[in-house]
Every structure is written in structure tokens, then in C-alpha cells.
Amino acid sequence: MLAGLSKRSAVVAGWLVVVVVATATAIGLIHRILRIDGSPYRLITAEVRAEPVWSVLLWLACLAFYGVAFRWLCAWMSRWREGVAATEPVGRWSTRVARLMEWVFSRWYRAAIAIAILWLPWILTSYPGQPNPDFARMIGEFLLQRSDFNDEIIAPYEAYPTSHYLLPDGERIWSNHHNFFLMLYYGGVSKVSITLFGSLMPAVFVISTVSLLFTLAAFGRAFSILGPLVQSWKVRAAAFAIVAGSPLIAMWSMSHSKNQLFAAALVWWLALVAQYVHSPEPVGRRWYVETTLVSLVFAVAVLFGWMILLAQALIMLGVRRGRWAPLAVMAVPGLLVHGTVSLAVGTGLIIPSDPIETKGVQLQQLALILKEHPDALSDEDRAALSRIFDLEAMAEAFDPDISDPVKSSGPFDRKTESFKYKTVQPEDWDDFTGIWLRAGAEHPDTFLDALVMKSYRYLDPLDRGTNWYPPWSGTYERTVGDHQLAPVDFNKGPRTAVRDEAYDCYDEMACRPLLSHSLRTVLLVLICAAAIAVGRRFSWLWAMPFALQIGIVVMSPLSAGGRYALGFTYGLAIVILLMAIDDRQPSDDPDGSARTPTDSRGS
């Protein structure tokens, strides 16, 4: 009874994912095909009301397309349940590829070297990348003090912003706006660079190099772990090609952001989880040490990393082998990082992340309601919300692509008057949720429009996205104190040329799949949904980290930020490998005998 209910629930969950993805794609098509002329931004409810028949037909067409694709994926996931057969290569080229894959997947450093060789065109023309504004602010946090600021130096908390009631009394301006430990790493390297060389340029090169090497090591280690578990040279070759042939991953691996570190740690971490649940023998001491270290990087790289680690550890309590091991190597590192930051915030050592950062969707909805319906709020609600925002400036600042203008964050020269970050107090937020709900109930169509704008684009494979390329603008200039941080003169010409070519390529539909984050996101989501629907044994282990990321990116400042989708871009090849592993229980064999991962490989 319970088994049947669980199976039906899995099928329903899989098809629910199909409906969500189909709806997101249909919304994109409706915006492109049925957009109302002269509209300053896209309102899905207005477009559907204007063309209801065509809107429904577009949605049904998307649903049919994804339905067929989903059934096909389900058939593949079911056939792959016993692993993918290691068929003998036929022909000279197939034999060479099979041998190459055997060599690549046998040692982590071989895989890393092979990937690096194929990435050389991008590395040689774009290394070491170029710092972005967030990186500059993190360094500014570490290096500068409040008394150092003058008319030419902008305080980091003015550019974020951080509400002034959160600022400590002392001179230090360290914060957890971006992960505190990552700020210490970037800032510490920068301080050493200035001390030894009188310049920030060595720090830029070191941090970019470490990021690139970490990415190569992560994929190399993931491939070497999964190699013995995946017997098919064709599947290995496909996964290797997805990574080594991806300009996106190559470029982002040299970025000075934080998301590329998280994405690299994610692929390494997923492979370690697979090793734990699929290995025929108990994992050794090395696994515990390695997983702990990778989990620490995972938690340090992004603010939500500890949440994914804790959730995965709890889910893995259902795994028969050593149920408490994941708590030790995943939950403990995650809670250690989060707890240390919380303690530092509580003692006043660092500035906490501003609460406004978690309200991106709500702010966009309120801003659009005020823009479309200036008299939407009652006098009481207007007075309460006016303690936090300048309501006219809030409506004027609305941008469907990004919530930063409403939050008055981002570059200081483009700062708006929307958020009253200098005068707002904690108690001013007490009525915010009630105001938001009442405004939504009064204007549900506009409420829905803003939610759609903020969320659908991550699951529309045809969407252009925003900031899909590393933020290497040739016109960006920045100094921290007296030291130039951007532009980076080394490789400036080739880096700008490659960037321009990439944007030209992205404008062509035939070329866009090479560079599309959303296409990879949709593919990965559908693969995981199909695995769940057919009852693959460990499907929830692979789906959970990505499901949480989908929820988290909706709260991000950007409506379709490429860097927030890097987990999917990096993770697609690894998920394909995971699906090619024999995941049956020993009792599934006809003779009831225990199997190793290399037994019973026929498909």
C-alpha cells in the first residue's frame, strides 16, 4: 500500500516538474510572440487576456513537447537502472575515444590535464579574467576602515547597502553580506599582495589561478571517482565532452565571483556522495577527510551552502550504510561555518547580512503594484511602508530584470532613493509582510506578473538570461584605496574580443546552446524528474541539491542571473554519469546475490 502510494507520488512529482518547465517556456514564447506593443515591460496576465486562445495553444504545445521528452527520458532512466553496458567500440575512432576515456577517468590529474588542454583557447585569451564590483567591495571591507573614507572612496556598506542600524560602533566594516570566510580569503590574499608587491594585481592573478585549478581538480576528482562506477565509454565521453567543450565553464572558472567555487565544489561533492552510496566496500578514512574539506568549501562559498549540506545529510539518514557518517562530514562542517558566522555576528565582530536581501521577490511585487496602481495601499499601509521606502522612488526604480534598484543597492553611482537604509529601524519591518499580502490580495494579477518576471526565466531554455557571461566589462574601472583593481591590462585586448564574439554568438539561435545556462538547467531538472518518476533508488539524493537551488535563485537579485545557475551548468555532466550507475539493491538480482557496481551491466 505504502509502496504504491510512494510510486504514484513520485510519478506525480515528475509530471509536476514537466508542467512547471512547460509553463516557464510558454511564458517566454508568449512574451516574444504576443508582446503588447509599447509596453515598457512584459505583463503575462495582460498578454494572456489580449490573446487567450494563442496563449493556451502555446502552453499546450510546450506541454506536449516536454511531455514527449519526459516520457523518452523516463524510458532511458528505467533502462539505465542496471547501469549502461560497456559495449565494445567499433571502428578506429571509437576505439581511440574509448581508450582515451579509460585513460582520462583512471586518475584525477589526467582528467584535469585533459580538460585544461581543451580549455587552452579560453584560458590563453582570457586569463586572469577581471574583478567584478562584488569582489572589489569584499576587498574594500577587509582593507579599509570607516575613518579612511573620503569623497573619493565609497564605504562598502553604502554600496550594498547595509542598513545603518546594523553597523557596529568600531572602525571595522567586515560583513556577511557575501560569505564572511570568503571575504577573509579574498581580503587576506589582497593584503599580502599589497604588502609584498605594493599592488593588487598579484592577488588578482593568484585568486583567478586558484579558482581555475580548483575547478580542474574538482572535475578531475569527480571523473576519477565515477569512472569505476560508470562502465560505458560512450557515457563517459558524453560527460567529458560537456565539460571540456564548454566555454561557459572554462570562462567562469577564472572568475573572481563566489558562485563558481560553489559550483566546482558541488560536482566534487556529488561524486563523493555517489562513492559513499554505490561503493561495494566501506569507504575509507580518505573519504571522510576529503568530504569534510569539500563540504567546508561548499559552505564557505555561498551563504546557502550550509542549508544544502544539512538537508542532504538528513536525507541520507535513510541510506542503509553508516547512517550517521553524512552528519559528520556534511552537517557538521555546514553547521560549523554557519554557527561561527552567527557567533561573530552576535558578538559584533561582523555586520550581518541585511534582511532586505531575502525579500527580493516581495519587493519586486510591491514595486510593480505601486507602479501599476499608485493608489493601491491604504493610508495606514502607505504610512507604515513609507518608514522603509520612498514609495514614489520605489515604483520608479522598478526593473523587471533586477531587484537591486528597489533595494538601493548595486553601483553607488546608480543608487536610487528607494530604500531608506540610513534611517530604517528593525521594528519598521514588522508590518511589511501584512502590507505585501494585502497588496497582493487587492491586485492578484499584478502580484502574479511580478512573480513570473522574477522566476520563470531560469526554466526557459530560449531565454537570453542576464549576466550569463563573467562580468568582464572592458569599461569597468575600480581602485581600492590607492591600488588599481580593474581593468586588468594583461590580456585585456583578447579578453574583450572573446567577450564580444561570445555575445555575437549568443544572438544566434544555432550558437546559443553552447552558452545557455537555462538550457542546461532545464535538461538537468528534467533528468532528475524522470529518475524520480521511474523510482531510481537514489534519485532524491541527486535532485535535492538542485531543487533547493531553484528555490534560492528565485530570491536572488537577478531575474535570470547566469552566475546563480552555475550549479546546473557545472552539474549536468555529473548528473548524467550518476544516472549511468547501476543503482539496484542486491536483492533486485534474480538469484538474490550481492553485486558489485561492475556486475550485471547489461541494458
Automatic annotation (TrEMBL):
Keyword Membrane: yes
Superkingdom in the source lineage: Bacteria
Residues passing through the membrane, by range: 12-34, 54-73, 108-127, 204-223, 235-254, 261-278, 293-315, 327-351, 514-533, 540-558, 564-581
Full protein name: Glycosyltransferase RgtA/B/C/D-like domain-containing protein
Keywords, comma-separated and alphabetical: Membrane, Transmembrane, Transmembrane helix
InterPro entries: DUF6020
Matching Pfam families: DUF6020
The organism of origin for this protein: Nocardioides caeni
